[in-house]
Amino acid sequence: MIDACASPWMNDELELLADTVRRFGAEVLQPNELRYRAQHRVDREVWRQAGALGLILPDVPEAYGGAGGSAAHAAVVFRGLGHIGNTSFGSGINHIVGHYLLNFGTEDQKRRWLPGIASGETICSIAMTEPGTGSDLQAVRTRALRRGDRYVIDGAKTFITNGQLSDMVVVVAKTDPAQAAKGISLLLVDTRTPGFRRGKVLDKIGQDGADTSEMFFDGCEVGADAVLGGVEGQGFYQLMANLPYERAIIAVGAAATMEYALALTLDYVKERQVFGKPVLDLQNTRQVLADVKATVLASRCFADHIVERWIDGTLDSALASMGKAWLTERQGEVIDRCVQFFGGYGYMLEYPIARLYADARVQRIYGGANEIQRELVARTL
Question: Whose CB among 45, 175, 284, 365 lies 3.0–4.6 Å from 232's, allowing a Cys bridge?
Fold first, then answer.
């Protein structure tokens, strides 16, 4: 990858974890990528294998089933998955849900859910987006109205990652429809609960290996202990507090995926012959890829800065938003320029570079559209 920019936060222990991620990717994910895309999901066994290797919730205490590491361990995992261009294995959602529980859950909620999430036995989803609502979380229409010691959930969700496989869904719902932010709660819903129904797997431009789905809640009853943290009306603030973590994951993955795209392209242009010589010998190729390498190096350094702030606990919303927006924009630009060197083969999905191109587009949309990220940063100017 970008050997000239050794990450200052890495150490020998983290290098061992990085090697584990590389092996997991090379032996489990990459050989099966086309099959995962054809069936629109990874196999459940993949989750259990990742859990056994400590690749899910590496930064959660061992007392709750995690690996007991730090944010650096999580960053290594997401960077490693980015280095192989993975988008099928949706473990990032388990990490995000795990941190909702770790930061805001009651002790009972932590002990009920976290060990299974860490082991890969429990796959999670976050049911946030609805038809007609996107980044405006206060506009959600799903209701979770209290009746005695129960909540009855009604509503529809869409674009839900891990939608077909998930065992537990964090549902963003209005527990007090008369309120805006203060009326939102997060509820932990076991997908075996009557009234919960999965919709179809959605056909996307890219990321075909991810089981992105619709979900429906029709009189779905859960106990009062399903409210995250045990107090209703805190959901909006819980979501906002956790967004830097989510956006850091996206930013780190974007920078790593650029490195992978450049590596694929260099391999190709060194071997591909045009007019009797390698494509790399052409002046335009060399100049474009020199610019790409500079962008990739700058992106790695930016991502490293985000990780360092993540590790020392000073990562704030503005920096995470800057990183998410800027790095995903650069990801799209870099991959677009790389695809051009592959000619027609760059448009064929059997080639990894084509899949990277298709998969990258949504990076600028999910986790909060980049227009929203810029507005959040602008408020700090």
Answer: 175
**What does each C-alpha distance from 194 to 121, 124, 158, 217, 218 come to in angstroms?**
21, 18, 19, 9, 9
72: three-class secondary structure by DSSP? helix
Query: Is residue 128 within 8 Å of 215, Cβ to Cβ?
Result: no
Give the residue from 287, 244, 327, 128 showing the smallest Cα distance to 279.
287
Per-residue pLDDT of the chain (381 residues; tens, 9 = 90+): 555 568 999 999 999 999 999 999 999 999 999 999 999 999 999 999 999 999 999 999 999 999 999 999 999 999 999 999 999 998 999 999 999 999 999 999 999 999 999 999 999 999 999 987 766 777 889 999 999 999 999 999 999 999 999 999 999 999 998 888 889 999 999 999 999 999 999 999 999 999 999 999 999 999 999 999 999 999 999 999 998 999 999 999 999 999 999 999 999 999 998 889 999 999 999 999 999 999 999 999 999 999 999 999 999 999 999 999 999 999 999 999 999 999 999 999 999 999 999 999 999 999 989 999 999 999 999
Domain spanning 237-378: CATH superfamily: Butyryl-CoA Dehydrogenase, subunit A, domain 3 (1.20.140.10)
- Class level of CATH domain 125-233: mainly beta
Establish whether 246 is a catalytic residue. yes
Kindly compute the dihedral angle of the four CA atoms of residues 303, 304, 309, 315, in this order, to the nearest 10 degrees: 10
CATH number of 12-122: 1.10.540.10
Sequence-separated (6 or more) residues with CB below 8 Å from residue 314: none
